[in-house]
């Protein structure tokens, strides 16, 4: 039956793409209602394709109107959900639970599922959510709709469905072009720059892909194999450096991690990427003993300049002390680290290992952190323990050197840790 359904789907796609299928001129609310209520698979696919293709041609104003329709007209029926919950509370059995589960899901979730029936729809739905985040970030009703997208994407892009693939100089050109385009930490300036990051024996790149989006990386990490822990990204990326053979390296440095799909914001798989790459590299190269990042500190300069604290950008020790305090003691209202990159790596179970002044002398590095960078250490034997402590109590794992730097900054900042 699955094969037969696929054949029918292919026939429908052929007829639609070549103009043989009847164009449906019904207003959008009628189409969305028809899709949710469709009982036939091919009929449902026809309606889903109409909506997907219409959406692709809309202006931002029309897209927002579509989102408002979903948020308003396909919202949860609160009274029905409350009544179903009351019946389940009185008599907990399969039937009352099934009724409650159906009532507790807004119709727009089923609409999104059914839109995903047609070929290529997953990619289009990811782009649709990117539009929703862009157009509706300040609208509570639209952000409630986003929770439905996020709920479904959390299942569709579960780690179990993702495929880890190495990216190298022999990878298809369309993939390499996207690596250049999506690089978000250290811009790739040219094809020669990309080759320096992929071709040498002491360089690696890995990306997660989804089977229905095989030519679209979801997230990728660039890795330098080095001797010792580097303290300058310019040295890592230097044009004239002398490459190592892979077996000469004792350290794997994750120096750039880039999310590629704005529509998958908040769908976490970066932690799985780093841990799996570290495990795979450890198995491939037994000489690797250390796994660290060389990470930016994107909020440091803005935070520091918003405080009444004298500082000297040329004083390397002072800049490291202030950065250590910021990473380990500056907190959000929920008690988590103020710096987003710190929150990501600490949540993965990494340790704040070392700080380096003048580590990124690029204009971007100077603007976001006055050139300071940080190594987060991934000790594969301790990441689970560090993660559990951070998740449970907010405890931040740090090296003794970083603790000393942060304590030294107390005399300058005169502010207790939160």
């Amino acid at each position: 039956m699955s094969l037969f359904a696929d054949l029918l789907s292919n026939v429908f796609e052929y007829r639609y793409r070549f103009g043989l299928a009847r164009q449906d001129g019904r207003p959008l609310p009628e189409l969305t209602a028809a899709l949710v209520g469709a009982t036939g698979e091919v009929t449902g696919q026809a309606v889903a394709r109409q909506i997907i293709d219409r959406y692709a041609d809309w202006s931002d104003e029309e897209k927002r109107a579509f989102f408002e329709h979903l948020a308003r007209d396909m919202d949860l029926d609160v009274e029905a959900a409350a009544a179903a919950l009351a019946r389940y509370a009185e008599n907990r059995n399969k039937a009352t639970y099934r009724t409650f589960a159906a009532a507790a899901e807004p119709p727009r979730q089923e609409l999104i599922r059914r839109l995903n029936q047609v070929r290529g729809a997953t990619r289009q739905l990811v782009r649709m959510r990117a539009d929703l985040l862009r157009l509706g970030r300040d609208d509570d009703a639209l952000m409630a709709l986003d929770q439905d997208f996020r709920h479904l994407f959390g299942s569709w892009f579960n780690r179990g469905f993702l495929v880890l693939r190495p990216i190298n100089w022999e990878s298809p050109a369309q993939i390499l072009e996207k690596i250049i385009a999506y690089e978000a930490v250290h811009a790739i300036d040219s094809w020669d720059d990309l080759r320096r990051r992929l071709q040498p024996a002491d360089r690696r790149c890995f990306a997660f892909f989804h089977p229905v989006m095989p030519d679209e990386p979801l997230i990728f990490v660039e890795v330098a194999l080095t001797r010792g822990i580097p303290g300058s990204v310019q040295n890592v990326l230097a044009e004239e450096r002398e490459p190592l053979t892979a077996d000469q390296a004792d350290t794997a440095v994750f120096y750039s991690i880039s999310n590629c799909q704005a529509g998958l914001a908040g769908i976490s798989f970066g932690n799985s990427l780093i841990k799996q790459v570290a495990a795979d590299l450890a198995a491939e190269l037994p000489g690797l003993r250390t796994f660290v990042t060389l990470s930016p500190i994107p909020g440091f300069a803005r935070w520091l300049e918003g405080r009444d604290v004298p500082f000297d950008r040329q004083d390397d020790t002072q800049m490291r002390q202030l950065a250590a305090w910021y990473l380990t003691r500056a907190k959000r209202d929920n008690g988590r680290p103020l710096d987003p990159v710190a929150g990501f790596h600490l949540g993965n179970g990494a340790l704040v290992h070392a700080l380096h002044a003048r580590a990124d002398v690029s204009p971007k590095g100077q603007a976001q952190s006055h050139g300071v960078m940080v190594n987060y250490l991934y000790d594969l034997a301790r990441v689970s323990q560090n993660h559990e402590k951070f998740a449970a109590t907010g405890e931040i794992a740090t090296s003794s050197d970083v603790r000393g730097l942060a304590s030294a900054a107390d005399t300058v900042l005169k502010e207790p840790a939160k």
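The beta strands are 163-166, 203-209, 219-226, 251-259, 290-293, 351-356, 373-377. Residues 14-22 have pLDDT under 50 and may be disordered.
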